[in-house]
Amino acid sequence: MKEEHKLITIILKSGLITWLLLLAVWSFGAMFYTDDFLPGPFVTLKGMAGLISDGTLEKDIMFSLIRVLKGWILGLLFAVPAGLCVGYFKPAGYVLEPFLNFFRFIPAIGFITLFLLWFGVGESSKVSLIFYAVIFPVMVNTIAGVKSVDYSLIEAAQSMGAGRSKVFFTVIVPSAVPNIFTGVRLGLSGAIICIVAAEMLAASEGIGYLIYTSRLYYRTDWIFTGIFTLGIIGLLADKLLRLLGKRFLYRFGVR
To answer: How big is the chain by its Cα radius of gyration, in Å?
Structure first.
């Protein structure tokens, strides 16, 4: 009985039931529509196989991943230090938080036209758009992490003679790591979402470009392929990030 219960728990945790339910609902719904409107799982897999066989899908994935990584890494390099400064140094917070609270409610897609005008139709506009989408969730979570630090830890460090800078690096930053890591994960999801919008309007390759141009050929199966590819990329990237976080940031409270 215990073995059966353990097996059921493993199956539930794996998410297998969720995927089987999704496939069942999807297959059932596809029975009532044409493949141009709602292709079923088999038709979508067939279309995906065609894109893989001619190298189109691999090429689009590569271009999208490179753009996402560039914008995401640049966003982290800016947002984490900026968030730590805004959260800990009050004068910086007074100056920068109004800008942060204003611009974080403006979606990146609203700047597509301006970024194309300023940076052109090349890679710079796409990377800049992803950079914009990444910095706000990372900064907000970093600031929240700094402000949620137990003040008794700060007092303890000060009582032992630690100065402001030492308190910052030995108490504030380590205590804020779990929140920063959450922001890093949210920033990655924002980067993947944003690349679709950027590639739909100004690209000749990429997953977003594939999804957008597939409508011209009435290949809804290619659209589904692009959508599921993005989902798989995001799922795998987040799992990898969580594994790395547990492996290297466990002592900071990342689980």
So the answer is: 22
Residues 58 and 63: their CA atoms lie apart, in Å, by 9
Q: What is the pLDDT of residue 2?
A: 64
- Do 63 and 210 touch, CB atoms closer than 8 A? no
- Quote the CA–CA distance of 211 and 220 in Å, as a whole number: 9
Residue 226 has pLDDT above 70, yes or no: yes
Q: How far is CA 133 from the centre of its chain?
A: 9
Which pair of structure tokens corresponds to residue 146? 């700094």
Structure tokens at 41: 């799982």
CA angle 192, 193, 195 (to 5 degrees): 65
Q: Over the stretch 158-205, which tens digit does the pLDDT of each residue have?
A: 888 878 888 888 899 999 999 999 999 999 999 998 888 888 777 788
CA dist., res. 221 & res. 224, Å (int): 5
CA angle, residues 189, 26, 62, in degrees to nearest 5 = 35
Q: How far is the C-alpha of 211 from the C-alpha of 57, rounded, in Å?
A: 11
Contacts with 13 (C-beta within 8 Å, 6 or more apart), sequence order: none
- Tell me what pLDDT residue 132 has: 94
